[in-house]
Design brief:
Number of helices: 19
Strand order of the largest sheet: 1-2-3-6-7-8-9-10
Radius of gyration: 27 Å
CATH superfamily of the largest domain: Aldolase class I
Largest sheet: 8 strands, parallel, barrel
Number of strands: 24
Strand content: 15-25%
Structural class: alpha/beta
Distance between the termini: 52 Å
Bound molecules: flavin mononucleotide, iron/sulfur cluster
């Protein structure tokens, strides 16, 4: 039976920190920081063969030369009393086609319908090759002192490509009915079990969330078979990397708790421990799963990125509220897919070699002007360092980010503002709800001023553009209904605004100068939002410029056939300006040569939430001494 010091397991998450497939100091730091209060850690999925990588910077277990590094990792975690799980996955047709040398095999010769390489349909010889890759990797994991092997049967990877009726189109003994489709996955399991003495856990998708894919009913049946095969535990996720990434990655756009229900359903039918996963990121979530007996263990991913002490704080072994994960996938999945490696919007230390704030021996007093994300982060970090801080905010703590949770299904973004406000209050940081004047800043004994005054909308030179709204149009009190609305700018803000406005019955037209819209938007959100806008008949005009507004008509220009053509949009009720932002700095001129100051966040350089928080943190760290 799975025996861990507590119910909590770090879920497998690709970090993208390795240059050569081997463990380095970044991995060791990352896992050590998270291991102490967990029953077990699952490091990122290891590639079984160099030609089967999902990202170029993935860790491998394809060769004995990886064993010493992996041993270092298991030793480190064992010192903390934490068990370590080697997650072994063969991606099949989902190996990354952009990595030179990668190859693609599957139960089928069809490519994933959402893009990807065309795979070679495995024959029995090829299947034996796959079995060998798994058993060799499992043996290396055992040699490297892992306590468990976890086999990936889900998420649309190779073994799921056999299980799934949507993908598996074989007419041999490995395709067709359920009994045939499970044959190869069970063959892999048996071979792995026979090759090592350490126990084996199964990870599967309780439901692929597509009509003709793997459904829960079948996975209950499969779980019973796994239990009879002597599996140690069953780890229940959802979705597939090909068709339903929002479910796989538990994006904020999918409802919380569906995966726990799947775990709970499977648990009714098996007598081995069941592990639940998916957006377990608040104390209430843990309590619900525990007290309703939905699962025996909980795998937690992103909540432990956002706050390495998420579980320690829940268990009251570490003080303080936890920094909440927003389920945005932007810094973590976005960082990994974008090639930068895993980062986190709310935790500036993930992915960066940034020191922890240490107490200063030279206490000073600082003013921060602007209580947006950068200002609030700077305030908390300066306070942690031991300096006195006074924070000036003329409106509401949170700044522009107070609007970020207003577009549909983005409520979870509000959690970070609530966290900052609560922490600022708990720590008795002095907040002045007023606009800071030169006199305030000069006459109160501050050593330095941090200007975190944010950004304002950039107004393009459009003739007649006098009346327009901005993102605050989304506030409930301003939100229009049944109007015809022109959005100037199809970037992230323009697209989000359109999504909310169409929900309210408005007819929306977006005009964007560039060739494409939603640049810089997190990829899952982008795919879902653009699809929704198309379904809702939102008109998106790319490569078009608004040049003039006259009464209720907008004049546009577009380059066509090397000529500039003009068009008109008539009967516009309201215009929204979403053509980018520019730094806002009302104070530096007045402070010049009078007192030292430094910019943070958008006031320094316009960026996203992740940049603002990191900037606030870095500025505060630079003021330690
Ligand atoms: C950046 C990132 C990479 C991930 N990579 C994998 C993976 O390679 N294999 C896998 O089975 N799950 C992977 N996951 C899914 C997690 O293991 C977990 O199931 C998911 O994040 C939901 O749990 P959470 O809400 O606690 O984060 C990944 C998740 C993230 C955010
Ligand atoms: S980037 Fe977003 S989803 Fe990912 S861990 Fe951080 S807060 Fe959570």
């Amino acid at each position: 039976m799975l025996e861990l010091k507590n119910q909590f397991i770090l879920a497998p998450i690709k970090l993208g920190y390795s240059k050569d497939g081997k463990i380095n100091q970044r991995h060791l730091n990352f896992y050590e920081e998270r291991g102490e209060h967990l029953g077990a850690v699952t490091p990122e999925p290891f590639f079984l063969d160099k030609g089967l990588r999902e990202i170029p910077t993935q860790l491998g277990i394809d060769n004995d030369d990886k064993i010493p590094g992996l041993q270092k990792l298991t030793a480190l975690l064992h010192e903390q009393g934490t068990k370590v799980i080697a997650h072994l996955n063969h991606p099949g047709r989902m190996a990354n086609p952009k990595i030179p040398g990668n190859y693609h095999v599957s139960s089928t010769d069809k490519a994933c319908e959402n893009g990807g390489a065309t795979p070679e349909k495995l024959d029995t010889k090829g299947m034996q090759g796959v079995v060998n890759l798994f058993t060799k990797a499992a043996k290396r994991a055992e040699k490297a002192d892992f306590d468990f092997v976890e086999l990936q049967f889900g998420h649309g990877y190779l073994l799921a490509q056999f299980l799934s009726p949507q993908v598996n189109d074989r007419d041999d003994q490995y395709g067709g009915n359920f009994e045939n489709r499970i044959k190869f996955p069970i063959q892999v399991l048996e071979a792995v079990k026979n090759s090592v003495d350490i126990p084996v856990i199964a990870r599967l998708s309780g439901d692929e969330m597509i009509d003709d894919g793997i459904r829960l009913k079948d996975m209950v049946k499969f779980s019973k078979i796994l239990a009879n095969q002597g599996i140690e535990a069953i780890h229940v996720s959802a979705g597939t990397v090909c068709s339903t990434p929002p479910w796989y990655f538990q994006h904020m756009f999918v409802p919380k708790g569906k995966t726990w229900n799947m775990a709970s359903e499977i648990k009714k039918f098996v007598d081995v421990p069941v592990i639940a996963v998916g957006k377990i990121n608040a104390s209430e979530d843990i309590q619900k799963i525990r007290y309703e007996g939905m699962a025996d263990y909980m795998a937690i991913g992103r909540a432990l990125l956002a706050d390495p002490d998420f579980v320690g704080k829940y268990l009251q072994k570490v003080d303080g509220p936890f920094r909440p994960c927003l389920a945005c996938s932007e810094g973590c999945l976005g960082g990994v897919k974008g090639g930068k490696g895993l980062h986190c919007v709310v935790n500036p230390r993930v992915g960066e070699i940034l020191p922890e704030p240490e107490l200063t021996e030279d206490k000073k007093k600082y003013a921060i002007v602007g209580g947006g994300l950068a200002g609030m982060e700077a305030a908390l970090t300066l306070d942690t360092i031991g300096h006195d801080v006074v924070l000036y905010e003329k409106e509401k703590l949170g700044g522009q980010f107070n609007l970020a949770h207003l577009p549909p299904k983005k409520e979870s973004l509000k959690r970070i503002i609530d966290y900052y406000r609560e922490e600022i209050e708990n720590r008795n940081i002095e907040v002045h709800c007023e606009e800071a004047t030169r006199e305030d800043l000069m006459n109160n004994g501050f050593s330095k001023i941090i200007l975190a005054t944010g950004a304002v909308p950039a107004v393009p030179p459009i003739e007649g553009l006098d009346e327009y709204y901005w993102a605050d149009f989304l506030l409930e009190k301003n939100l229009p209904k049944d109007q015809r609305i022109l959005i100037i700018g199809g970037g992230l803000i323009g697209i989000e605004m359109a999504s909310k406005l169409t929900d309210n019955g408005n007819e929306v037209i977006i005009v964007e100068m560039l060739e494409s819209v939603a640049e810089g938007m997190e990829m899952i959100e982008k795919a879902l939002t653009i699809k929704k806008l198309k379904n809702n008949q939102v008109k998106i005009l790319t490569n078009h410029r608004v040049v003039k507004i006259k009464n209720t008509t907008a004049e546009l220009e577009v380059d066509e056939d090397e000529k500039i053509k003009t068009k008109k949009i008539e009967n516009i009720d309201n215009i929204i300006l979403a053509a980018g932002m520019k730094s806002y700095d009302p104070l530096s001129d007045e402070l010049e040569d009078q007192i030292d100051y430094q910019f943070a966040g958008d006031a320094k350089r316009v960026g996203k939430a992740q940049d603002a928080i990191r900037s606030g943190y870095e500025v505060a760290l630079s003021l330690r001494n």
